[in-house]
Amino acid sequence: MQALQQFFEENDRFAKLLGFQIEEFNIGVAKVSVIIQEEHLNAANVVHGGFLFSLADYAFALASNSHNKLSLAISANIMFQQAKPNGKLYAYAKELSIGNKVATYEVRISDEKDSVIATYTGTVYRKDSNVI
Fold first, then answer.
1. What percent of the residues of the chain are helix, what percent strand, and what percent coil, each to the nearest 5?
2. CA atoms within 13 A on the CB side of 2
3. Has this prediction a pTM greater than 0.70?
């Protein structure tokens, strides 16, 4: 697991750019955190929906690739529950179902008080090749 985590930390350039930190990484689950910065806000001074989607998508990518079988998103959906102007966010992804070719995951984005900010579901296609 350590080598796989290191692979993502070193090679996911977009996650690095956005400041995402891996908090937990195990088979079928992942937890990612980020501290909200001014550049993450939209014109209404709350976290941009695209930023929230990216946070959830990174946790989803980690959880779905945790079996070291290259898994690529084929579907993703997000629902925003509340706006957040500052603080820290956590995205927790967990495996709901896994098959030989398709797997489904749920991601919950919350804040420091464990209030739900957004929920995300995603489905991946599992390739025959390994991640690393």
1. 25, 45, 30
2. 0
3. yes
Asked whether residue 74 is domain-assigned, the answer is yes
Query: Per the domain annotation, does 131 fall within a domain?
Result: no
**Domain of residue 91, CATH code:** 3.10.129.10
Hunting for tokens 């697991």 — which residue is that? 1
- Name the domain count of the chain: 1
What domain range includes position 22? 2-126
7-65 per-position pLDDT tens digit:
999 999 999 999 999 999 999 999 999 999 999 999 999 999 999 999 999 999 999 99
In this predicted model, what pLDDT tens digit does every residue of 80-98 receive, in sequence order?
Answer: 999 999 999 999 999 999 9
Q: Are 22 and 5 in contact (CB under 8 A)?
A: yes
CA distance 23 to 15: 13
